[in-house]
Structure formats: structure tokens, C-alpha cells
Design a protein that fits this description.
The chain is about 45% helix and about 10% strand. The chain has about 475 residues and is of the alpha/beta class. It has an eight-stranded mixed beta sheet with strand order 3-4-2-5-1-6-7-8, with helices on both faces. The chain has a two-stranded antiparallel ribbon with strand order 9-10.
Length: about 475
């Protein structure tokens, strides 16, 4: 008889024999050899992609600064309230893949980082059963171990964190960095976050926690949402985080951590309870990948599904390795996604401006505030949303809720904007045309060139030949 399970891994649990996974260090901790092997940490990076990466990055910077940013600046795209959008710095485009860890307190986020980084006990981030991490912590590569203050990170032009200063002094006091000579950090950067505590109010943190999370979400290549199976209560703060994760489903991975703390016969029930709790928050047809295990350096508890947990860990590492290999493609795709949002923003502002100019009363009779308020509250009555939705290559699902613009116009006067038709000149052309050219031509072509096979890249570039003139990356 077939057993229908929530996920294939549960079927494996039901049939797998409980076995002991060998491989331990002298101090009794688990071996990290599979981490080195899957992420190829001992291998020197080489090949045509490595050599062409600066050129790909240069082209992406040029497209952003020449074709996308000018229209963003004109219509203040980077000044949305409650979003992580801000002007992209060159340091962000040069940065390594970023892996963001989110989730309730005591889920094991920090322990995962300590384990993957390979920190010794004197240099590990603090962990504990009670809430320990109160800061956003950047784990990045450095030749020697040292801590870096958040304000120093934000003012370093070679680091991608300058725009975080907008969240104020309160956040800067809860933002820090650690440089660490770890092989894995030569390939990526980890962001550890304060655990979500449902009975804690935003104002008690002293900075806008959700908005800061959104900033990192917008830039993350992979988002690990970590849960402790004994703490599956879902509250308003976690709901708010998942609301901000909408549109980033492909980057989300759910980590069902500390699974060896549960008796094998209960594991499936708890796993089902997790999905039951998350179902209202993840409203997509294809749920995110879930990895079940105990992701730290301690040995698995005897009598649990050790073999399965190790395989799950290897699968997660393979996922991370794919993020490293595809980092440039992700940057181009993220840039295109951003440009699409910027284009829709410009089209909406143009329609709001037209609705205002068509309906504003004469100053002689007054009533301007009431008319503008009515347009903001009911843009559908002034053909604002409908006209943008009917524009070529605009998806109605990408149009922000009207409340976003109610907040936007709290800090920006509608009269400070000019229509799209005025954003054209003989020398530079039309800003909207340039952004559309980036979205529908330049960025897809750049993405296509990155996806070429190594032999094709070498043939096109000529930089892969050795001193004899032969292509050193082609197969013998």
C-alpha cells in the first residue's frame, strides 16, 4: 500500500533504519569534511567564469548607472517607506553572495553559522537556550579574526552596507561585523539576525526591525528561515517577516533544526505541525524546500535518523554551492526584477500626476487637500491602477498596494514631480525608453552571456588561451 506523505523525506523516515553516522573529530565534534568537499573549499577558483566576472560586473554597473538609476532618481524610487529599496552602490554589485538567517529565537541560527564557518570555541558567536543574539551580525572574510563596529561597516566604501545608516543611530548600535579567516567566507557572507520574540514590540528594539530585515531580504541570495521544533508558535512579528518575504519564494529555505531532539515516532507529527502553522503565511503552489536535521557540530543523538539528517545537510550545502556558482546570474536577475519595479513606480507616479492635474481645483476656490486625499484613497476611481495594468508588459501582480503610495506621498509633494513625457532630451533620449531597453534587451543579453558554456565564453573572449594558443578550459 502506498503511503502518501507531506514530503518525500518523511517517506524515507518511515522506512529508514536508524544507523550511526561515522566521522568525528578528536574533540568529539562532527567532521566538517563533507562541507569542504561539497563547497570545494580547498580548491583554487579558476576558469573562464572567474576571469570574466569583473567584466560581467562592469557591464551590470554600466546598465544600472546609465539606464536604470536615472529614472529611479527622478521619481524617488529609493524613498519608499517600509521597503528595503535604496540606491545600489558599486560595493553591493561587487559583493559576494549573501546568506540571510531569520527565525524565532533559539532556533539555532547562530549555531549553524558557527558550524559552517568552522570557528573554534574562543571565536564562535554566542549561543544559548535564551535569546542571545541582539544584533545584526555580518560574518565576512578577513585575514585575521577581528570585530568591526556597525558604523565602520556602513562608512566603508568597499562594503555594501552604506545605505543602512538611514535606519538611524539605534540600529547602528545593534549592527556589527566579524572578519574571520574561513575558507567558506572567501565565497560568501552570512548575516545573523536577532531572534524573533513575539511578545516584544518594535519600539522596544530602538530601531525599525522589520524594515531592516526587508533591506537584507532585498539583497539576499539565499534566505534560511530556521525553526526549533519545540517552538512552533507563529505570532504577529513572524507573520510580518513572511509578508516581506513575498516575491522572494525562490530564495527561501525552511530549516527544521534540532530534529534529533525529537523521538523518531514524533518527528513526522511535528513536521506536519510546522507546515500547518506556515501554510497561511506561504501562499504559493510550490512550497519552499525544507531541510530536516541538526545543523551544528555536535554528534547526532543516538537512536535518531542520523543518516537522513546527514543527507539533508549535504543537500543544503549543495543548495548553497549552487548559490555560489550562480551568484552573477542572481545579480542580473535581481537587477531586472528591481528595474521592473522601478518602471512600474514611474508609470504609477505619471498616472497619479495626470489624475491630479486633471482634477485639482482652482486655487481660488480651495479644496486641493480634499481632492488629493480622495485620489490617494481611491485611485481606482481616477484610472490610475487600471491604466498602468493595461500598459504593455506590466503584470497586475507586480503593482504595489495603494497604501504604499499613501505613505510615499506623506514625504513627497506630488507637485515636485514632472510627467514622463518631460523626461526626454535630444542627447540622452527618454528615461523610460532606456529603462525598458535595460529590462527587455540589455539585461537578458547579459544573463544569456553568463549562462554560456565555458568553451563558448572562451571562444568569444579569447582570454582563456594558454601560451601555446590552446583553450586551456576545453575538454581533451
Amino acid at each position: 500500500m502506498k503511503v502518501h506523505c507531506i514530503r518525500a523525506v518523511i517517506c524515507v523516515m518511515l522506512t529508514q533504519t536508524i544507523s550511526t553516522v561515522t566521522g568525528a573529530n578528536e574533540d568529539g565534534t562532527r567532521s566538517r569534511s563533507h562541507i569542504d568537499e561539497i563547497l570545494r573549499l580547498q580548491e583554487e577558483e579558476s576558469g573562464p567564469y572567474k576571469q570574466l566576472l569583473p567584466e560581467f560586473t562592469r557591464q551590470l554597473k554600466k546598465i544600472y548607472h546609465d539606464d536604470i538609476k536615472p529614472l529611479e532618481d527622478v521619481y524617488k524610487f529609493n524613498n519608499f517607506k517600509d521597503t528595503g529599496y535604496s540606491a545600489i552602490s558599486n560595493a553591493e554589485l561587487d559583493s559576494k553572495p549573501l546568506i540571510l538567517l531569520l527565525g524565532p529565537w533559539s532556533g539555532g541560527k547562530t549555531s549553524i553559522i558557527n558550524y559552517f564557518v568552522g570557528a573554534d570555541k574562543s571565536q564562535q558567536l554566542l549561543t544559548g537556550a535564551e535569546p542571545v543574539t541582539s544584533e545584526f551580525t555580518v560574518l565576512m572574510y578577513g585575514e585575521e579574526y577581528r570585530k568591526v563596529e556597525g558604523l565602520v561597516l556602513a562608512t566603508d566604501s568597499h562594503k555594501p552596507f552604506a545605505s543602512l545608516e538611514k535606519y538611524g543611530k539605534g540600529f547602528m548600535e545593534h549592527f556589527t561585523g566579524i572578519q574571520f579567516p574561513s575558507k567558506i567566507l572567501e565565497k560568501l557572507t552570512f548575516i545573523d539576525t536577532p531572534g524573533i520574540i513575539e511578545n516584544r514590540k518594535q519600539q522596544e528594539r530602538g530601531y525599525p526591525f522589520n524594515e531592516v530585515c526587508d533591506w537584507f531580504i532585498q539583497r539576499a541570495d539565499l534566505i534560511l528561515v530556521v525553526f526549533d521544533p519545540t517552538k512552533l508558535d507563529i505570532g504577529t512579528e513572524l507573520e510580518s517577516i513572511f509578508d516581506r518575504l513575498k516575491g522572494h519564494e525562490s530564495q527561501i529555505r525552511i530549516i527544521f533544526n534540532k530534529a534529533d531532539n525529537i523521538r523518531p515516532q514524533q518527528l513526522m507529527r511535528v513536521y506536519g505541525a510546522l507546515f500547518w502553522s506556515l501554510a497561511p503565511l506561504i501562499q504559493v503552489t510550490e512550497p519552499p524546500k525544507v531541510y530536516v536535521g541538526s545543523f551544528w557540530d555536535k554528534q547526532f543523538k543516538p537512536g535518531t535518523y542520523e543518516e537522513l539528517f546527514l543527507e539533508e545537510e549535504k543537500a543544503l550545502l549543495t543548495d548553497i554551492n549552487n548559490v555560489i556558482k550562480n551568484s552573477m546570474e542572481h545579480k542580473v536577475a535581481a537587477m531586472r526584477k528591481r528595474a521592473i519595479s522601478g518602471r512600474i513606480h514611474a508609470l504609477l507616479l505619471d498616472r497619479y500626476l495626470r489624475a491630479w492635474n486633471d482634477n485639482k481645483p482652482s486655487r481660488l476656490f480651495g479644496g486641493e487637500k480634499e481632492v488629493w486625499k480622495e485620489i490617494l484613497l481611491h485611485p481606482e476611481n481616477y484610472d490610475v491602477i487600471q491604466s498602468v495594468r493595461s500598459h504593455p508588459n506590466v503584470s497586475g501582480y507586480d503593482i504595489p498596494d495603494a497604501t504604499v503610495y499613501q505613505k510615499f506621498f506623506e514625504i513627497h509633494d506630488i507637485n515636485s514631480f514632472a510627467p514622463l513625457t518631460s523626461q526626454c532630451s535630444f542627447l540622452r533620449g527618454c528615461l523610460l525608453d532606456k529603462m525598458e531597453d535595460a529590462i527587455f534587451d540589455k539585461l537578458p543579453r547579459l544573463l544569456s552571456s553568463i549562462k554560456q558554456k565555458p568553451d563558448q565564453i572562451c571562444a568569444a573572449s579569447g582570454i582563456c588561451s594558454d601560451t601555446t594558443g590552446h583553450n586551456k578550459w576545453s575538454k581533451p
